[in-house]
Amino acid sequence: MQKSARLPLTRAQTAWLAALLLSAQLPLWMSVLDWVALVGTGLVILRLLPPVRRLGSTRLRALLLPALALVAALGIRAQFGYFLARDPCVEFLYLLIGIKFLEARDTRDGSLLVCLALFLAVTQFFYTQSLLAALLALPVVIALGGTLASLRAGAAAHADWRAQLAEPVRLTLQGIPIAIVLFILFPRLAGPLWGTATDTAARTGLSERMAPGSISELSLSDAVAFRVDFIGPPPSPRDRYWRGPVLSRFDGREWSALSHLKLGSFARRESAPIDYTVTLEAHGKLWLFALEYPLALPHAPTDEATLGAPVNDIALLTYDQQLLARNMVMQSVRYTVRSASRAKVTAVEGDVADNIGLPNNNQRSALFARELRSRVDSDRAYIDAVLAWFHGDPFVYTLTPPLLDRDPVDAFLFDTKRGFCEHYAGAFVTLLRAAGIPARVVTGYQGGEMSLDADYMIVRQSDAHAWAEALLDGRWQRFDPTAAVAPSRIERGLGAALPAGEPVPYLARMEMTWLKSLRLHWDAVSYQWQRGVVGFDVRRQRDLLREFGFDNPRPVQLAAAIAGVVLAWTALVLGFSRLRASQVDPELALWGRACRRLARAGLARRPDEGPIDFADRAATRWPQCSVALLRIGELYARLRYGPEREQRAALLVRLRVSVDSLPSVRKLRAQS
Asked: Strand 268-269's sheet: what is its strand order?
């Protein structure tokens, strides 16, 4: 055993290891840095080239590869600015398995690479638990079985690669029912199996800051922000304002949220309530999204709640009507909210002071605001005049506005007149504050697309939007200057509002192509996976078990149920295997049994090798068993190819006795 553990890697074993490493790296290609993906995968492919296979290993191990690992670690440290966190450690492991594979020479190195590959394969679930991630994990399982079988077969691995591939496929299919049972019955954990330091730049979504170009850049993404299931008909497009971060501070160029946090009270609705459930994708921030205006705190969906379970414990409401989660949204979260499209939001103490100040730049905007305010007799009339100016002047709604350096509001309003929603919302609030009207910027999403079967709504990053709120008559009221410039943006979405030739995200385009239809169908499947598998928590497990008569089952009952199902399935699989074996000629079954035992001991039969020749080769490998091995080859050849039909029963008995007399795999390995 000690000798076989350090046997040199064959070409077949090297190929299996390469397949395992590449299948573990593939799911991470979109998560790691570009240069890490290129170098890590390139090292695995480089190892398969003949010049690299012939390199001497002593100098390589002593100098080059440790230096390469050190350079990789320093490069990752320089890229991130730190090392002990999730992302840099995953990046380093991605490179490390390529470096280790480059210097692997024997089966012990291969065993270590198997362990490293399994660690790397698990890390993809740090980033996503989507259906695609689960499907991409299947090749790792298949390649793992083939690699282990190849390492076990030793020098004869090249002769049995089909069996090495078929065996893990068969075992995987047989294990799927057991995995489903364990998934349903095994006690759920309140949190994930692992906790990792998070990386702030790893998420996509809105920020607590807004500068010219920030939302327009985000709107180029087709990524899903959240999905919504409505209890009843969905609201009209003009009422689909999904409230997010509220920005009250302005430094002359960039809008940002206030640093202090104050709790608020819910608005008084002035329209029918809308009930819906949001499935929010991870974005690494605190805010939750809801239709304007939320009437109650979010809680667990009603179809997943348990009687007597606490509600309203996942978020809080700020004084500016934001919903903030109690913990950062680092994984998909699902919650039910009640909102109203029209509600009375009264001012609270500090609203005027927090939403009136302006810096000293953008003087042309301030002068224009004072002149326009002097022509009208009320704040409402002034706001109407500003919106009419946006509508009447040649302003252009575009995803590619020119860059604005100094005094960006002045440059946008009086020079370029080309901008996206953040330009219009920011300039509009600036004009209101310059006229003495408290105002603030609200960011979030506007719109949403119903799925193909109209079962739920998809809100994408391309629906990111910014609008304004003004304090009039003691209450906050929404105004959207983008609607004055491009009303089709509100009614029909981003694709209908942009001029021809603009870089519209594919799924935001108006035409329905076969590719868009395919992606929408895939989104529907992914959403059901998210709801049914990833979202299968303690509450849903209890509800499902209650349907099968397990009301608050004890751990002993669950263990008994799991054991019973596993035993029943095992008996079924073994019974089917025996049934198949009984349909095979008895001499073929006995010969196959002998060949499998010898293959597991390290000597596999070549496809072009006859029974006599294989028995001779086996007798040379194990001379102490040569009599039995030669007899097995001779008896099988006579039964399979000879004319001795009248002696068949006696020959079968002799063949069975000879096969049974072979030592176990462990003893054969020890004697080789």
From this structure: 268-269, 343-346, 475-479, 464-472, 439-446, 241-247, 290-291
CB 315 within 8 A of CB 323: yes
CA-to-CA distance for 334 and 340, rounded, in angstroms?
A: 20
> Which tokens hold the place of 122?
């698990």
- Which of left, alpha, beta for 482 (phi over 0: left; psi -120 to 50: alpha)? alpha
Coil, strand, or helix at residue 272?
Answer: coil
Residue of 160, 354, 480, 523 marked catalytic? 480
Residue 109: what residue type? D
Q: Which two tokens stand for residue 150?
A: 């190849």
pLDDT digits over 596-612, tens only? 889 888 888 887 888 89
Average pLDDT over residues 164-188: 79
For the question of residue 421 being annotated catalytic, the response is yes
Q: How confident is the model at residue 340 (pLDDT cuts 50, 70, 90)?
A: very high
Q: Is 340 helix (H, G, I), strand (E, B) or coil?
A: strand
Q: Point out the catalytic residue in the list 160, 421, 423, 595.
A: 421
User: What is the value of pTM for the model shown?
Assistant: 0.72
In the residue annotation, 106 being an active-site residue is answered as no
Q: What is the per-residue DSSP string for 155-182?
A: GGGGGGHHHHHHHHHHHHHHHHHHHHHH
Q: Domain residue spans in the chain?
A: 4-185, 209-517, 586-671
Residue 486: strand, helix, or coil: coil
Q: Is 115 a catalytic residue?
A: no
The rounded Cα 479 to chain-centroid distance in angstroms is 36
Q: How many other β-carbons are positioned within 10 Å of the β-carbon of residue 201? A: 8
Instruction: Say how far apart CA 178 and CA 133 lie, in whole Å.
Output: 20
- Active-site residue, selected from the candidate residues 283, 299, 423, 465: 465
Q: Nearest Cα to 451, choosing from 530, 535, 534, 521?
A: 521
Per-residue pLDDT of 523-544, as tens digits, reads 888 888 888 787 777 777 777 7
